[in-house]
Design a protein that fits this description.
- The chain has 387 residues and is mostly beta strands.
- It has one domain: Tachylectin-2, Chain A.
- Helices cover 12% and strands 43% of the residues.
- It is built from five helices and 25 strands.
- The strands form five sheets. Strands 5, 6, 7, 8, 9, 10, 11, 12 and 25 form a nine-stranded mixed beta sheet that branches. Strands 13, 14, 15, 18, 19, 20 and 24 form a seven-stranded mixed beta sheet that branches. It has a four-stranded antiparallel beta sheet with strand order 1-23-22-21, with no helix packed on it.
Length: 387
Amino acid sequence: MCAATLRRTFTNRELTPAAWASERSPADYYITNPAIQRYDEGWVMAYKVVTAHYHAERFAICRLDENLDIVPGTVVPLSDTIPNITPQVGDPRLLVFGGQLWVLYCHFRLPSLLYLAPLDADTLAATGPGRPLLLDDRQWQEKNWMLFAHEGELWAVYTIAPHVILHLDLRAPDVIRCRRAYMTTWDVSSYARRFGALRGGTSPVRVGDAYYAFFHSVYFVNRFHATFAPAWHALRARLGRPEHWQGPQQTDGDVRSLQPTTGWIYAPRALPWRLDSMLRRYERRFARRHYVAGCYGFRAEPPFAPFCLSAEPVLWPEHEPAPQRQPRLSPLNEQVVFPAGAAFLPNGRWLVSLGIHDERCVLQELACSVSTSATTSAPANTSKRSS
């Protein structure tokens, strides 16, 4: 169990870049899902800035001092500095690789892609375009890869269960090729049955001979929907399954289509209009879900096999102040705690950056022993993938 200590909550006025404050009042923005990174003897924090009904989705960045206060004059409209940025981007993650600070971000429009862009150490602005992370046989929606540097190479946790590790190749100037390197199957059913599937969250942090990461999971609180949601969404996926792979196309400067030979964009078959409308109306009216955060660890050597998992969430939205913003950014998300960054402090505690209820940014220190906060679960099978 984790005990909370230091806590820092930020206001919209602190976090809104001056250029965006001139467009609308800071109070009109939903600012959430902050990611933190230790860098250059200080802290850097990136976060998403959204308008009501997701009409605009962007992200910003700033520096924090040792007291976790924003350094005056360092709030930068980061997404505005990326040359090839597209609309509807967000959920930034920060990492250091090769002595360079990087931002990982998601393009939400389907089929969604992840991008990686280098940042200037002094200005925190992007020093080049975002490069798409390309993976064969990818999912229709990609959002929460967890990148980490190990022995001079860049890796990513693609899925937690099974534990699929990708190797990232940064040698190409315009894209980042990814390949499946290792896969470990392990039993997470005791957690997933109660709190939902384990999904990505913070960049893994090395502590001793292991990496640890905070992940998020989602479960429905409406009893009827919780019972039938798996079958319901399987039906939607089946009816709307991809018909075929479609070659790359370049439309309105969409950088996802710059590679002429990859064939990695595919077209889904749309649901029948009446059925899709009925499902969406049902979810808006009745379905409600909660986001919680757990913690797990994996070995700091290939195949990066997981070895521990928290028995229950270590962070709960019910422990947070109630949502305050109206209208809600997403009525479906009734209560939310979303981990996007973490650091292991010299005092033996964790500092976790959280998005709360899709409306605010929080840094939370946790007095949590990595050796005792998790329950051991032995991997069942590990395989090496070369493709």
